[in-house]
Amino acid sequence: MRFALLTCDPLPEPDPDQGPLVGAFRARGHEAEPVVWDDPDADFAPYDALLIRATWDYARKADAFAAWLDRPDVVPRLWNRPEIVRWNMHKGYLLELEARGVPIVPTLVVGADAPTTPATAARERGWHDVVVKPAISAGSARTQRFTPDSLGDADAFVASWNGASEAIVQPYLPSVEGTTGGRPERAIVWIDGLVTHVVEKSRRFAGDEEAVRARGDATPEEVAFAVRTIEACPFDPLYARIDVMDGPGGETLLSELELIEPSLYFDLGPGSAATLAQAAARRVESMESSI
Predict the structure, then answer these.
(1) Those residues with Cβ within 8 angstroms of residue 40's Cβ, 6 or more apart along the chain or in another chain
(2) Which residue of 50, 139, 154, 183 is surrounded by the most CB atoms within 10 Å?
(3) Helix axis angle, 18-27 to 272-290, nearest 10°
């Protein structure tokens, strides 16, 4: 089989997942190579599957990316599937998952024409230390924390986007600092029905470098939370990253369900790249057998 690993040009930072995944495909007799998703000269027809991996510019090109998802040469080959990607582009999906019983970091979606501003909406909830980010964003772009002294600046921050996106407003959870008895943010990696590994991450805002370290196997609680989250998802993803934080009472809360282009930290999860290569090949075989 031949796989295109979809990426962007230029890459804002190196993709450490690419090498291990290419090697895992080739070790199983498949071809795999990076292809820029919006390269006008890219020909997707020869590939058995298109695997989204590092399309880290999609949020800046949201309209073009959404149109690309409908291309006839993309739709039958894309993983995750186009309908999953489209649903996951706007972070308002968190509210849908909450309605289906998944505990989430409390979340407000504030539109440009909303009757209240992000700062006012936060104060009405009793939130005075918040994180604000665009509803369509990736890689912590335009993600900022506003403390009690600067909360009023959140309105000007969102206004500077010129209506490019609705705003997501969430309370800042100090547990992620790992200094108040809480656990750092964790990323649970899910591949085709299996939790392969967990990593711990530093909280990241616009312009920050992300610090990630291996955590090893998931706890039974983390596996159960991942299963609960995926079961609440209206689609069946090939891969997912389930980012979680501790709430004020130590409860596990979903911060994001990454289904488009998440780093899966293959270098911190032995065998995880091979798991994805095997799962992708199975999905292709399943699609072909159903035709």
Answers:
(1) none
(2) 154
(3) 60
Same domain, 179 and 259: yes
Number of domains in the chain: 3
Exposure b/e, 247-284, CB count within 10 A at least 16 = b: beeeebbbbbbbbbbbbbbbbbbeebbbbbbbbbbebb
- pLDDT digit string (tens) for 157-177? 998 988 777 999 999 998 877
Helix, strand, or coil here: 87?
A: helix
pLDDT digits (tens, 9 = 90+) for 82-136: 999 999 999 999 999 999 999 999 999 998 777 788 999 999 999 999 999 999 9
Tell me the per-residue pLDDT of 236-245, one tens digit each, with 9 for 90 and over.
999 999 999 9
Same domain, 164 and 194: no
With contact defined as beta carbons under 8 Å apart, do 80 and 238 qualify? yes
CB atoms within 10 A of CB 210: 12
- φ, ψ for residue 146, nearest 5 deg: -125, 120
CA distances from 104 to 91, 92, 98, 172, 256 (A): 12, 12, 6, 13, 8
Asked whether residue 168 falls in the same domain as residue 185, the answer is no
Contact 80, 69 (CB under 8 A): no
Task: Note the pTM of the prediction, 2 decimals.
Answer: 0.93
Q: Are the C-beta atoms of 219 and 153 separated by less than 8 Å?
A: no
- Identify which of 177, 187, 122, 124 has the alpha carbon closest to the alpha carbon of residue 154: 122
Q: What domain range includes position 66?
A: 2-89+269-290
Q: Give me 252's structure tokens.
A: 């596990």
